[in-house]
Amino acid sequence: MNPPLSVAQYWSRPADEVMQALKSHTKGLDSSTAATRLQQYGSNATTADHGSAKTLRLFLQRFSNPLVLILIFAALVAFVVHDWLNALIVLAIVVITTVLSFIVEFRSTKAVEKLQQQVAVRATVVRDGQSLSISVKDVVPGDIVLLSAGSLIPGDGLLIEAQDFHVTQALLTGETFPVEKKPGIVPEGAGLVERNNCVFMGTSVRSGTARALVVQTGSATHFGQIAGTLSLRAPETEFERGLRHFGMLLVRVMLVIVVVILAINIILHHPTIETVLFAMALAVGLSPEMLPAIMTITLSRGAKTMATHGVIVKRLNAIENLGSMDVFCTDKTGTLTKGVVELDRTLDTTGQNNETVLHLAYLNSSFETGLSNPLDEAVIAAAQKKGLTAQDYEKLDEIPYDFTRKRLSIVVGRKADKTCRMITKGALQNVLAVCDRVQTAQTIAPLNEGYSQTIQQHFAAWSAEGYRVLGVAHKDMPEQAGHYTRDDEQQMVFDGFLLFFDPPEENVHNVLDALQHLGVQTKIITGDNRHVARHVAEAVGFQVERIITGADLDEMRDEALWHLAPQVNLFAEVDPNQKERIISALQKTGHVVGYLGDGINDAPALHAADVGISVDQAVDVAKEAADFVLMEHDLEVLHKGINEGRRTFANTIKYIFITTSANFGNMISMAIASLFLPFLPLLAKQILLNNFLSDIPALGIADDNVDRDWEVTPHRWDIKLIRNFMFTFGLVSVVFDLITFAVLLTLAGEVAEVFRTGWFMESLMTELLVLLIIRTNQPFFKSRPGRFLMWSIAGMVVLTLLLPFLPIGAVFELAPLPGPVLIAIIAITGCYVLVSEMTKHIFFRRFSRPQQTGVSS
């Protein structure tokens, strides 16, 4: 629902007028009004796909499957010709299969959604005069939102206040660089790009602070309209692309075989309706119809398991990419180090302890309202421990931190004498760049070459010891009515240094070794200087092979970076765009790249990476861009997540191997049987029953145990290998089917019911038992299957042997077999298991190493 027409073209009207039209106030909405509006306008989401509507859509999707539609059409054909029994059987199998698939997928989806709520993006709003953190979905028109660097903007709105406020809105406008936003009025006909007094949902704050009045939420926003029109979806993953290509292969094979079978049976004057039903059932039989459910179960199980290890999965399909990852890029803070930053020393320009430097830094950090960070927290904690306070000062203005200037300035006024001072803190080189004087022990002196060399020597020495070094400067200012700007940051006095220390993580060396054993190479990409980065890396046992700095990257062509990036494991002094460039270079050379980041400057790299990983304490824009969120900033949980990703991939590939190879063999066998039998080798309802009974154990693959061999190397989709597997094992199945045909014709003659029953039993038992063979690269008796898989196979084998003797067997026209025929079928099944085991070892010796089964690494 849209807000009232009285706020139309809100960008061309004064903020007070728009606020009044929305019945809001600078103190925000009261809680009861906000609750009423949430019911009135609905959840702040870009689609209305919620609750019962979402459940219904998920259920109806089961019936949009082309294979299901084929079955429904076959049932309608049977109804038309009054073949009631066949029609009811087909419909019953359709309903049972789709309902079962829906139930397991619905439960899995709900479980994952519950996990994802733990890392939902939040917004800071003013309610009842107090700032309050709420879920973005609960933001309503009329809310006052507080925005700072790293915030995702939760709705379309009008700026009320802004200070050096820059927004990245390429998502909507395509603008490459952040644009500055200011309160004001723009013409009524201004386009989206020209509305510099507005903020828009889905964009993010690059720097500065602001207050904005939310005017439109959810589907009424510009982002919501785009999402609704284009049905935006995440980019197709490599695994999804492989599945799609493989599905196209199956369709082509299916069409050829079905057309041939249909033609042969028509030429042989077999009953037309039975032939049509037979051909359609056969078409369904080739395809892995339970694959969507298997994938959902497998992925959701992986997501739940990863959650127990502290990894929340935001995008299910990214789990396979995590298993495929072979390069992992990360900053050093919180991964190689503990992430607990402490202010170790505050020193003057001569390297002596100086409390004045601490006090200046404290005033700067305590009044800072932009980007929250652990460095400011460390400064405040150290100053308060010394008993320092800011009560004698008042904040006059702030020039927020940004990643170009790499410094933050606060203008304070001393209450006692009304003097005004700008205090700047930031990266040492960037602070020195705006200084022309230096504070010495006795006086203020010009910043000459001698002082510059001394400062740089101190910086290099402390950095080599692992300290992160910031600079502090000040400048006495005349008080003015307007805002101060970054142009005022000049001719300042350099006061001294802040030395921060982040202790190396004690067990990180073991984790890095574990990642190496998994075939994952770790690379450090950091904005810190090269000396600190090298010291920390070597302190945790990380072997630095080569360092490339941001300055090196500026002079390097893309082609050169493509060549060097795989060989370099430490990148220092890099900016956000350079991080993205490094990720892209690694991808160009065929690597699947993961990136761990938690800051605004990490967002481009997180978007570019195959696997984006963030932490729960990350800024909104980083958390939103990530595929996975770590509840702890710890590489150990990532190691466990990679293992789970590979387990998930392995179980998905197992199902594809098993169903396609068995079903392909059955289709070929039926095509051959159609050439010489005076009757259909199986009835349509028998084919469908066969598929249904074999699919029940297949559901257990989602929880199956995985051999350790699967987890020791990255896995990638290899359609050629799977195609070879399908043809190889399909042909083995055909050979044993032909043997079965010969035995049945010898022992039972051309008695249709006995022939069909014998082949039904042989076909189903071999498909069930081959699950135990193909699910592992080891000899099947050395690899223990999952409990459900093992017992369901045993149960289905027993049911297969008993089915001809049960009343329901007559419904499917299955007849009890004579003793010699039954013994022959059991013997053929046993021989098939042994030959399949031998074929498996020969195949994998020829086409791939054992640990790479089904994949290419």
From TrEMBL:
| One Pfam short name | Cation_ATPase_C
Q: Known catalysed reaction(s)?
A: Mg(2+)(out) + ATP + H2O = Mg(2+)(in) + ADP + phosphate + H(+)
**Topology class, membrane:** Multi-pass membrane protein
Is Transmembrane helix a UniProt keyword of this protein?
yes
Tell me which GO cellular component terms the UniProt record holds.
plasma membrane
Give GO MF terms, alphabetically.
ATP binding; ATP hydrolysis activity; P-type magnesium transporter activity
From what superkingdom does this record's organism come? Bacteria
Q: Does the keyword Lipoprotein apply?
A: no
Location(s) in or outside the cell: Cell inner membrane
Top-level class of the enzyme under EC nomenclature: translocase
Q: Recorded E.C. number(s)?
A: 7.2.2.14
Q: Where is the Cation-transporting P-type ATPase N-terminal domain?
A: 9-83
What is the role of the protein in this entry? Mediates magnesium influx to the cytosol.
Q: What is this protein called?
A: Magnesium-transporting ATPase, P-type 1
Per the record, the gene is mgtA
